[in-house]
Amino acid sequence: MFGNHHPRWFREDRYRRTYRLIAGVDEVGRGALAGPVVAAAVILPEDFDHPNLNDSKCLTAEKREELYELIVSQAISWAVARIENVEIDEIGILKASLKAMAQALEALYPKPQLALIDGRFTTPWAGLQKAVVDGDALCRSIAAASILAKVTRDRLMQEAARSFPVYGFERHKGYATRQHLEALKAHGPCPIHRLSFRPVAEAQPEELRPPRRVPGRLVFAP
Protein backbone atom coordinates (compact mmCIF):
# COMPACT_ATOMS: atom_id res chain seq x y z
CA MET A 1 0.00 0.00 0.00
CA PHE A 2 2.77 2.41 0.83
CA GLY A 3 6.43 2.37 -0.18
CA ASN A 4 8.79 3.33 -2.96
CA HIS A 5 7.10 4.67 -6.07
CA HIS A 6 7.11 2.77 -9.33
CA PRO A 7 9.44 4.42 -11.89
CA ARG A 8 6.51 5.03 -14.26
CA TRP A 9 5.16 7.70 -11.89
CA PHE A 10 8.18 9.88 -12.63
CA ARG A 11 6.06 12.70 -14.09
CA GLU A 12 4.17 13.25 -10.86
CA ASP A 13 7.21 12.65 -8.66
CA ARG A 14 8.99 15.45 -10.50
CA TYR A 15 6.26 17.90 -9.48
CA ARG A 16 6.39 16.67 -5.89
CA ARG A 17 9.78 18.29 -5.49
CA THR A 18 7.90 21.62 -5.46
CA TYR A 19 4.29 20.84 -4.49
CA ARG A 20 3.01 18.74 -1.60
CA LEU A 21 -0.74 18.73 -2.33
CA ILE A 22 -1.13 17.44 -5.89
CA ALA A 23 -4.52 16.44 -7.27
CA GLY A 24 -4.92 13.98 -10.10
CA VAL A 25 -7.99 14.50 -12.26
CA ASP A 26 -9.61 12.25 -14.86
CA GLU A 27 -13.00 11.67 -16.46
CA VAL A 28 -14.95 8.69 -17.76
CA GLY A 29 -17.80 8.55 -20.25
CA ARG A 30 -16.88 11.03 -22.96
CA GLY A 31 -17.55 8.57 -25.75
CA ALA A 32 -20.70 6.97 -24.36
CA LEU A 33 -24.07 7.44 -26.05
CA ALA A 34 -25.97 7.55 -22.75
CA GLY A 35 -25.55 8.62 -19.17
CA PRO A 36 -23.39 11.30 -17.57
CA VAL A 37 -19.75 12.13 -17.95
CA VAL A 38 -18.13 11.59 -14.54
CA ALA A 39 -14.92 13.19 -13.28
CA ALA A 40 -12.89 12.50 -10.17
CA ALA A 41 -10.15 14.45 -8.40
CA VAL A 42 -7.86 12.85 -5.81
CA ILE A 43 -5.08 14.08 -3.52
CA LEU A 44 -3.04 11.08 -2.41
CA PRO A 45 -0.56 10.90 0.46
CA GLU A 46 2.96 11.43 -0.81
CA ASP A 47 3.98 7.83 -0.08
CA PHE A 48 0.84 6.12 -1.41
CA ASP A 49 1.33 3.42 -4.02
CA HIS A 50 -0.03 -0.02 -4.85
CA PRO A 51 1.28 -2.66 -7.26
CA ASN A 52 -2.08 -2.80 -9.08
CA LEU A 53 -2.56 0.95 -9.37
CA ASN A 54 -3.07 1.69 -13.06
CA ASP A 55 -5.29 3.35 -15.62
CA SER A 56 -8.81 2.06 -14.89
CA LYS A 57 -9.15 0.73 -18.45
CA CYS A 58 -6.31 -1.72 -17.75
CA LEU A 59 -7.99 -3.24 -14.67
CA THR A 60 -10.76 -5.75 -14.17
CA ALA A 61 -13.97 -4.60 -12.52
CA GLU A 62 -13.02 -6.53 -9.40
CA LYS A 63 -9.61 -4.84 -9.16
CA ARG A 64 -11.19 -1.42 -9.71
CA GLU A 65 -13.63 -2.00 -6.87
CA GLU A 66 -10.83 -3.14 -4.57
CA LEU A 67 -8.66 -0.14 -5.41
CA TYR A 68 -11.63 2.24 -5.15
CA GLU A 69 -12.14 1.27 -1.51
CA LEU A 70 -8.43 1.61 -0.79
CA ILE A 71 -8.14 5.02 -2.47
CA VAL A 72 -11.15 6.59 -0.77
CA SER A 73 -9.99 5.32 2.62
CA GLN A 74 -6.41 6.57 2.26
CA ALA A 75 -6.73 9.75 0.15
CA ILE A 76 -6.10 13.13 1.75
CA SER A 77 -9.12 14.35 -0.22
CA TRP A 78 -11.24 13.07 -3.09
CA ALA A 79 -14.35 14.15 -4.94
CA VAL A 80 -16.44 13.14 -7.92
CA ALA A 81 -18.68 15.27 -10.12
CA ARG A 82 -20.96 14.51 -13.03
CA ILE A 83 -22.60 16.34 -15.90
CA GLU A 84 -25.83 14.78 -17.11
CA ASN A 85 -26.78 13.99 -20.69
CA VAL A 86 -29.10 16.98 -21.08
CA GLU A 87 -26.30 19.45 -20.34
CA ILE A 88 -23.90 17.46 -22.51
CA ASP A 89 -26.32 18.00 -25.39
CA GLU A 90 -26.47 21.72 -24.59
CA ILE A 91 -22.76 22.55 -24.25
CA GLY A 92 -20.97 19.67 -25.95
CA ILE A 93 -19.02 16.78 -24.50
CA LEU A 94 -15.63 18.50 -24.27
CA LYS A 95 -16.95 21.46 -22.27
CA ALA A 96 -19.03 19.10 -20.15
CA SER A 97 -16.00 16.93 -19.38
CA LEU A 98 -13.85 19.90 -18.39
CA LYS A 99 -16.68 21.36 -16.31
CA ALA A 100 -17.06 18.09 -14.39
CA MET A 101 -13.31 18.04 -13.74
CA ALA A 102 -13.40 21.62 -12.47
CA GLN A 103 -16.33 20.83 -10.16
CA ALA A 104 -14.48 17.85 -8.71
CA LEU A 105 -11.40 20.00 -8.09
CA GLU A 106 -13.47 22.71 -6.46
CA ALA A 107 -14.92 20.18 -4.02
CA LEU A 108 -11.52 19.11 -2.67
CA TYR A 109 -10.40 20.14 0.80
CA PRO A 110 -7.66 21.02 1.41
CA LYS A 111 -7.28 22.73 -1.93
CA PRO A 112 -4.53 21.30 -4.12
CA GLN A 113 -1.44 23.36 -4.87
CA LEU A 114 -1.31 21.78 -8.33
CA ALA A 115 -3.79 19.78 -10.40
CA LEU A 116 -2.61 17.26 -12.99
CA ILE A 117 -5.29 16.86 -15.66
CA ASP A 118 -5.42 13.80 -17.89
CA GLY A 119 -5.41 14.76 -21.56
CA ARG A 120 -4.55 17.79 -23.66
CA PHE A 121 -6.76 20.41 -22.01
CA THR A 122 -6.88 22.21 -18.68
CA THR A 123 -10.17 22.96 -16.92
CA PRO A 124 -12.10 26.11 -15.88
CA TRP A 125 -10.86 25.62 -12.30
CA ALA A 126 -9.02 28.73 -11.09
CA GLY A 127 -5.97 27.01 -9.55
CA LEU A 128 -2.63 25.98 -11.00
CA GLN A 129 -2.97 23.00 -13.33
CA LYS A 130 -1.06 21.05 -15.95
CA ALA A 131 -2.47 18.89 -18.74
CA VAL A 132 -0.70 15.53 -19.03
CA VAL A 133 -1.26 13.41 -22.14
CA ASP A 134 -1.60 9.75 -21.10
CA GLY A 135 -1.56 11.01 -17.53
CA ASP A 136 -3.37 7.94 -16.20
CA ALA A 137 -0.28 5.91 -17.17
CA LEU A 138 2.28 8.46 -15.91
CA CYS A 139 0.81 9.96 -12.72
CA ARG A 140 -0.43 7.84 -9.84
CA SER A 141 -2.92 10.52 -8.73
CA ILE A 142 -4.50 10.57 -12.19
CA ALA A 143 -4.59 6.76 -12.25
CA ALA A 144 -6.38 6.86 -8.89
CA ALA A 145 -8.83 9.46 -10.20
CA SER A 146 -9.55 7.32 -13.25
CA ILE A 147 -10.51 4.43 -10.96
CA LEU A 148 -12.84 6.56 -8.83
CA ALA A 149 -14.52 8.02 -11.92
CA LYS A 150 -14.90 4.64 -13.62
CA VAL A 151 -16.32 2.84 -10.60
CA THR A 152 -18.72 5.71 -9.89
CA ARG A 153 -19.99 5.84 -13.46
CA ASP A 154 -20.32 2.06 -13.75
CA ARG A 155 -22.47 2.04 -10.63
CA LEU A 156 -24.67 4.81 -12.06
CA MET A 157 -25.15 2.89 -15.30
CA GLN A 158 -26.02 -0.28 -13.40
CA GLU A 159 -28.74 1.72 -11.65
CA ALA A 160 -29.91 3.06 -15.01
CA ALA A 161 -30.18 -0.51 -16.30
CA ARG A 162 -32.86 -1.21 -13.72
CA SER A 163 -34.91 1.73 -14.98
CA PHE A 164 -34.31 1.06 -18.68
CA PRO A 165 -33.67 -2.69 -18.94
CA VAL A 166 -34.05 -3.07 -22.72
CA TYR A 167 -30.74 -1.31 -23.47
CA GLY A 168 -28.34 -3.52 -21.48
CA PHE A 169 -26.60 -0.60 -19.75
CA GLU A 170 -25.26 -2.96 -17.08
CA ARG A 171 -23.07 -4.60 -19.74
CA HIS A 172 -21.87 -1.81 -22.05
CA LYS A 173 -22.31 1.20 -19.70
CA GLY A 174 -23.83 3.30 -22.49
CA TYR A 175 -21.10 2.82 -25.10
CA ALA A 176 -21.82 2.04 -28.75
CA THR A 177 -21.75 -1.75 -28.75
CA ARG A 178 -23.72 -3.77 -31.28
CA GLN A 179 -26.24 -4.69 -28.61
CA HIS A 180 -26.73 -1.03 -27.67
CA LEU A 181 -27.13 0.13 -31.28
CA GLU A 182 -29.64 -2.64 -31.99
CA ALA A 183 -31.64 -1.66 -28.89
CA LEU A 184 -31.59 1.98 -29.99
CA LYS A 185 -32.90 0.99 -33.41
CA ALA A 186 -35.63 -1.15 -31.89
CA HIS A 187 -36.76 1.10 -29.04
CA GLY A 188 -35.44 4.59 -29.79
CA PRO A 189 -33.61 6.67 -27.17
CA CYS A 190 -34.53 6.80 -23.48
CA PRO A 191 -34.32 9.85 -21.17
CA ILE A 192 -30.61 9.36 -20.39
CA HIS A 193 -29.45 9.12 -24.02
CA ARG A 194 -27.36 11.94 -25.48
CA LEU A 195 -29.55 13.17 -28.30
CA SER A 196 -26.76 15.21 -29.90
CA PHE A 197 -24.64 12.09 -30.53
CA ARG A 198 -25.10 10.85 -34.09
CA PRO A 199 -26.11 7.20 -33.44
CA VAL A 200 -28.75 8.42 -30.98
CA ALA A 201 -29.95 11.21 -33.26
CA GLU A 202 -30.28 8.77 -36.14
CA ALA A 203 -32.45 6.51 -33.97
CA GLN A 204 -35.06 9.27 -33.69
CA PRO A 205 -37.69 10.25 -36.25
CA GLU A 206 -36.23 12.82 -38.64
CA GLU A 207 -38.39 15.64 -37.34
CA LEU A 208 -37.10 15.11 -33.79
CA ARG A 209 -33.40 15.04 -34.58
CA PRO A 210 -31.36 17.82 -32.94
CA PRO A 211 -29.27 20.26 -34.99
CA ARG A 212 -25.87 18.89 -35.92
CA ARG A 213 -22.91 20.79 -34.44
CA VAL A 214 -20.81 22.33 -37.21
CA PRO A 215 -18.30 25.13 -36.48
CA GLY A 216 -19.40 28.49 -37.79
CA ARG A 217 -22.88 27.61 -38.97
CA LEU A 218 -25.98 25.69 -38.02
CA VAL A 219 -26.78 22.64 -40.12
CA PHE A 220 -29.69 20.33 -39.48
CA ALA A 221 -29.24 16.60 -39.73
CA PRO A 222 -30.57 15.15 -42.97
Main traits of this protein?
five-stranded mixed β-sheet; 2 domains; 9 helices; 222 residues; two-stranded antiparallel sheet; alpha/beta
- Mean of residue pLDDT? 91
Structural class: alpha/beta
The share of residues in helices is: 25-40%
Largest beta-sheet characterization:
5 strands, mixed
CATH architecture heading of the largest domain: 2-Layer Sandwich
Counted up, domains total 2
Q: Identify low-pLDDT runs.
A: 214-222
Distance between the termini: 55 Å
Order of helices and strands: HEEHEHHEEHHHHHEE
Biggest sheet: strand arrangement: 3-2-1-4-5
Quote the CATH topology of the largest domain: Nucleotidyltransferase, domain 5
Specify the number of helices.
9
Beta-strand share of residues: 15-25%
CATH superfamily of the largest domain: Ribonuclease H-like superfamily/Ribonuclease H
Gross morphology: globular
Q: Indicate the radius of gyration in whole angstroms.
A: 18 Å
Query: How many DSSP E strands?
Result: 7
CATH class of the largest domain: Alpha Beta
Describe the structure.
By secondary structure, the protein is an alpha/beta fold. The chain has two domains: 8-156, Nucleotidyltransferase, domain 5, CATH 3.30.420.10; 161-211, no CATH class. The chain contains nine helices and seven strands, in the order αββαβααββαααααββ. It has helices at 10-15, 61-74, 85-91, 93-106, 135-138, 140-163, 169-172, 178-187, 198-201, and strands at residues 22-28, 37-43, 77-83, 114-118, 129-132, 211-214, 217-220. Strands 3-2-1-4-5 form a five-stranded mixed beta sheet. Strands 6-7 form a two-stranded antiparallel sheet. Strand 1 (22-28) and strand 2 form a beta hairpin. It is globular. It starts with 9 loop residues before the first helix and ends with a strand.
